[in-house]
Specification:
The complex is a heterodimer of chains A (196) and B (549).
Chain A (H helix, E strand, L loop, with lengths): L2 H33 L3 H4 L3 E4 L2 E5 L36 H18 L13 H4 L9 E2 L1 H15 L3 H10 L1 E2 L10 E3 H12 L1
Antiparallel strand pairs in A: 1-2, 3-5, 4-5
Helix pairs in contact in A: 5-6
Chain B lengths: L2 H30 L7 H10 L7 E2 H25 L14 H12 L9 H4 L2 H31 L5 E3 L1 H27 L9 E4 L5 E4 L4 H10 L20 H25 L3 H29 L15 H14 L14 H12 L10 H21 L4 E2 L2 E2 L2 H26 L2 H4 L6 H16 L14 H31 L15 H32 L1
Antiparallel strand pairs in B: 1-2, 3-4, 5-6
Helix pairs in contact in B: 1-9, 2-7, 3-4, 3-6, 3-17, 4-17, 6-7, 6-8, 6-13, 6-17, 7-8, 7-9, 8-9, 9-10, 9-11, 10-11, 10-12, 10-18, 11-12, 12-16, 12-18, 13-14, 13-18, 14-16, 14-17, 16-17, 16-18
Chain lengths: 196, 549
Amino acid sequence: MTSLTRQYAAALRLLLALTVLLGVVYPAVVFGVGRLGLSARADGSLVEHDGKVVGSSLLGQSFTGDRWFHGRPSTSDYSGDTSGGSNLAASSDAQAKAVAERRATVAQADGGAGTSRGAGGIPADALTASASGLDPHISPEYAALQVPRVARATGLGTDLVASLVAKHTQGRTLGYLGEPRVNVLELNLALARAAG
Amino acid sequence: MSEAAAGLLSLLTLVVALVVVCVPLGTWIAKVFTDTRHWRVERVLYRVAGVDPEREQGWRAYAVSVGAVSVVGFVLLLGLILLQTSLPLRQGSDGMGVTTAVNTAVSFVTNTNWQSYAGEAGVTPLVQTLGLTIQNFVSAAVGLAVCIALTRALLRDGTGRIGNFWVDLVRGTVRVLLPGAVLAAVVLLVGGVVQNLAAPSTVTGLSGAEQVIRGGLVASQEAIKELGTNGGGYFNANSAHPFENPNPFTNLFEVFLLLVVPFALPRAFGIMVGDRRQGRALLGFASVLFGAGVGLTTWAEVAAASASTGSMEGKEQRFGVWASALFGAATTSTSTGAVNSLHESYSPLGGGVVLTNMLLGEVSPGGVGSGLYGIVVIAILSVFVAGLMVGRTPEYLGKTIGRREITMAALYSLVMPVLVLGFTGAALSMDGPRSTMLASGPHGLTEVLYAYASAANNNGSAFAGLSADNPWFNVTLAFCMAVGRFVPMMLVLGLAGSLAAQRRRPETAGTMPTHTPLFTGLLVGIALVLAGLTFFPALALGPLAEALS
């Protein structure tokens, strides 16, 4: 055997051995650790309603209609099979059009004044598609904007709905990581329970 | 707390965590590669492979071994991908066409992890685990081995031997990457990243809409994806997908993971060459450029957030602008290429900065191993330039930088720009590739420039509007990934061979010190001048033109 073939044979044998170590043993060990009290997370943080799995608290879902809080725009309509976003630049015509349409949709459903940001305006997360298409969260501002509509449609009363929003508003993690947010599926679950 | 204060505090947390971990990790890495004993599992691996761990190799033999592991790894991975639809655990995957499969196999073997497929449909869980995960370890360990061989060569005194590749590869995997990945995977599990073998299930959501929920062995893949500066997402949305990156804590942890080995390596370098100050000078260089990259990306994205869309297109609510910009800067500075937000939807300047991070040649601090050997090449160019200015023979760490050495270093710094500019020009001049662009005008140019910069620098992130899953892009990008990885690597090994063969020269009063802040400044200057002279015209036509219009 020449030195070259010996090197290739060594590479093949080593890679097969490493496949066992890194491709079987390593994921299996991590899988095993995941079963030690972390199963719920390792299985995808699934949430149930009336005894049935209705989704994952990590994944946003498509909510339409007046009685639900709506999530952010998603270019894949919250498909769990084709995650991703628009990739559009702010300078593109397609993006300007998409934002104008979203603004009109939100304004029709929830009011929200024209183009202004801040109090009464339409928050940025309501006008833009997320990176994953599965963003489970909206900003507290967007949740607040939707409270009157949801209260009207569900008949639950503004105070109760607003208190549910407050209960499901998370601040920054540890007080300073990331952004304040509201998990839409969890909020809507609470809404469904309150409505009976 | 204001957004800016929270963002700055997050950055501070990251810096503290890096300092606390990189110091012992750098010491550990130096120990790993100078240890004279073998661990039992390592002996088993050497016996299986049939290699003698005590036999040192010259640079040519070392390079042949690097080639053997990479070629065999490519063939195994390609075979697995092409056969995947006939293998178990298909889970509805459509598989890949041949050019996509070649592109993917090259991509993972070169530590690039450019993905012209979507993770959900393109690969089965079997390929994710038995194919992609292996290369996530091995490709990083190959980079680390070459970097260690170069470091070792600086110490050798008139021998042509630079170490044993098999030992470097196995130790890097077993003693550095694997323990790190296990720890990281456990942290990610606690953070909520999934790790299961469940088949995809369709659930009826609360409002009646159906949704497919796909799990997988994600935590184990995610850990090495970041730690090995790989970046290939389990899912199409990569680290923006909530199953890969569920919350702001896992997000900061992933940023930490992809920086930790590259930032620990200068310390290992300093310890190995017997002068820690030398490592600090290189660390200073990487830190200055990294800091500038993070600062500029954040500034650009925060400035653009005054628009009504708040810079939030292509960003996740849980991360917001600051944590997205930090991730974007870190992933492009380390040749990782994972993304938690869509770089193509960044502001023109923000997108331009993350592109520039790659065009610097992935040295701020760059990928595992490849970053540090890139920095050492810049150090060699710098002592050469400084030597010319004062009329002295250029030396680095007791080795003369002669004609042979400077030729290798110069060729090293030419490979990537030739690939990037050549193929960008070619793609833009043809109707076919041009029709696959999502954007037009300057943004479209940036889209294509970004693709080739990402491939040739083994980064793997994308301006993902480009529809790159077609024969032209699959083949040319695979070519750029392979040439951009292995030609510089072979030049580095050749350089190591000639440095190792030299006698060490004692330091004299005339030797230029290479451990001072002045030298760090020189390194920064040389890196910026090199990248600036090469890429300023392209950047002016792309991101700068868009920002000014």
